[in-house]
Amino acid sequence: MTQKKYKNIFPIKKFGQNFLINQKIVQSIITIINPKKKQILLEIGPGLGALTKPICRFLEKLIVIEIDPNILFFLKKELFYPKLIVFCQDALKFDYKYIFNQNNKLIRIFGNLPYNISTLLITHLFQNINIIQDMNFMLQREVAERLVAVPGNKNYCRLSIIAQYYCNIKILLYIQPENFYPIPKVHSVFVNLTPHIHSPYFVYDINLLSSITKNAFQNRRKILRHSLKIFFSEKDLVQLEINPNLRAENISIIKYCQLANNLYKKIKYSSKTNFDYSKDSKI
Ligand code: SAM
Q1: Disulfide: which of 44, 49, 209, 280 matches 111 by Cβ 3.0-4.6 Å?
Q2: Domain residues for 210?
Q3: Domain containing 54 — which CATH number?
C-alpha cells in the first residue's frame, strides 16, 4: 500500500522512513541528549528535521548524514539549514574518523535510526569507538533489549556481549508506534550508549571474542563443550572455571573475555594452532 504524503514527502520504506511526530517525545529526547555549543554533534538520518530543528537551537553547527537526496531537498528550505554540515551518504560507509580529525574532538552521535540497518550501523560504529563520546539512538525495542540483555536472559546474545564490551548502555524511553508516521509495526526505545572510560573488560584481540561468541551462539541449544570444540578442549574450559555443559547464554562477558585471551595466548605460543578466525572478525 502506498503511504500518504507527509510534509510533501512520500516516506520510503527501504530507508526506514518512519518520522517522529510527537513533540513531547522530541522534547524528552533533546533533554536527554543535552547538547552543548562546543560539542561535535552528528545526526544519522535527519529526515524532515524532527530532532534536527530543536537541536540546532543549541548549536552553531550540526553534522548530518542522510542517504535520501529528496529529504535534503526538503531540509534546504528550512531556516536551520545554514547550520547543517550535510553529507548525502550511506551512514554505513561514512568515514567518521574524518569528522574527528577535522574537529579534534570526540563525536556525539544521535538519531532515530532506520531500523533495517540499526544493528549493522551500531556494530560499524563500534569500530570507531575511540572517537565517540556517546551515542543516543531510537531503536526497535527488540534490538535495544538484546543490547542490554544479561546472562540467563532470553535476549542475551552475541550483540549483547560485543555492545556491553564497548559501552555502558541504558534504555531511557519506551515509545509507542503511534508516535511515528507512517506507524511502524514495531515498538521503539530510546537508548544511550556511552563508551566505557574504565572498562571492566579487556581482550587482546576483539576478533577472537567475536569468533568465540559467533560459534557459541550459532546454536543456542548446544552446550559449550560442543559449540566451542574447535577452540577449546573440555579440559581448557574446566581450567578456566567454565562448566563445559553450560550453554552460551549462561556465560558472563568476563568469562567470554577470558576465553578470548586464553585463545590469544594459545595462538601466540603455539605453532600448531591452525584454525582461521579472520573470517569471523566482522561483529
Ligand atoms: N530523524 C527523523 C525523525 O526522527 O523523524 C527521521 C528518522 S527515519 C526513522 C530514518 C532516517 O534515516 C530517514 O531520513 C532515512 O532517509 C535516513 N536513512 C536511511 N538509511 C540511511 C543510511 N544508510 N544512511 C543515512 N541515512 C539513512
Answers
A1: 44
A2: 206-269
A3: 3.40.50.150
List Cα–Cα distances, 254 to 8, 114, 164, 259, in angstroms.
Answer: 51, 32, 11, 9
Percent of the chain exceeding pLDDT 70 equals 94
107-112 and 132-140 beta bridge pairing:
parallel
Number of domains in the chain: 2
Nearest partner of 77 among 159, 174, 8, judged by Cα: 8
Single residue among 143, 167, 195 that ends a domain in this structure: 195
> Is the distance from the beta carbon of residue 75 to the nearest atom of ligand 1 less than 6 Å?
no
pLDDT tens by residue, 174-204: 999 999 999 999 999 999 999 999 999 999 9
Please tell me the pTM assigned to this model.
0.94
Please enumerate, by residue number, every residue annotated as part of a binding site for S-adenosyl-L-methionine.
18, 20, 45, 66, 90, 112
Q: SS3 of 83, please?
A: helix
pLDDT tens digits for range 59-108: 999 999 999 999 999 999 999 999 999 999 999 999 999 999 999 999 99
CATH code: domain of residue 233: 1.10.8.100
Ligand 1: centre distance to CA 106 (Å): 22
Is the Cβ atom of 71 under 6 angstroms away from ligand 1? yes
